[in-house]
């Protein structure tokens, strides 16, 4: 298949592109390479896919991979209402996997406009391009943050998600509503994926795994919010991508026949880990004790997440299962190598 992967220089988009290429698919990667975090990390990911930084610097320039003839990259803004439709018209995609978004809960308190531009205007542009280009299936990233103030554990896709507590979460909930609307009106199969606290090698510098490791290595205190009384369903990157690729590859013919064009799944480890236990595992792998600065819970944060993945198991025979012990070791090994 020919697959458009947006956010291809990002954490999940990079690995998704890599696995799809390994499985023989043709991939066009799209990313605007914004400066929300270190762009050098984004260009390094692209280098792993055979894309030269000088070529990728220019907007709307189609770059061919030097290592895989099935991969091309284009630097583009999702909200560009001329360039994106032209890309769809020229490339004739079978599947679209939209992983591009302005990420981060806390950043949405400081720069709300960027979330509207990328996550709402950009997603609408994706939907319109799918509508007018006979796209067989749109797979897109949602987030566990949509569960907001929900108290029932574990979080199920059958739960009501009308109480988000950050603008980021509200935009992801909006994406699901927009996907439902386009599925209903224009018969486009759409699948939303609620990711739960993704971590692993090549991970984002604004995420806990990276922040804690970087601080401990460099003898800085780590910020432990809610005085450590937090639990997360930490999900290893390989487990996330395995779920994404299974959903991309499985034909949606049966869903279309059953008029189930719209679907949402949780992808999580189906396990809630205490934040202090997570930190302890990092300390073990670094052979170093963290200096902990205990702080109140931050606006937009939730105390606990835990994914119910029964629907994923039922429809795709898949359950993420990488342990924290395995996952943390892999990240720390990568961090030491990359920043050596």
UniProtKB/TrEMBL annotation:
- CDD domains listed in its UniProt record: UDP_GE_SDE_e (cd05253)
- NAD-dependent epimerase/dehydratase domain ranges (all copies): 3-268
Domain of life assignment: Bacteria
Give the organism the record lists. Winogradskyella ouciana
Q: Which InterPro entries match?
A: Epimerase_deHydtase, NAD(P)-bd_dom_sf
User: What are the entry keywords?
Assistant: NAD
Q: Which protein are we looking at?
A: NAD-dependent epimerase/dehydratase family protein
Q: Name one Pfam family in it.
A: Epimerase
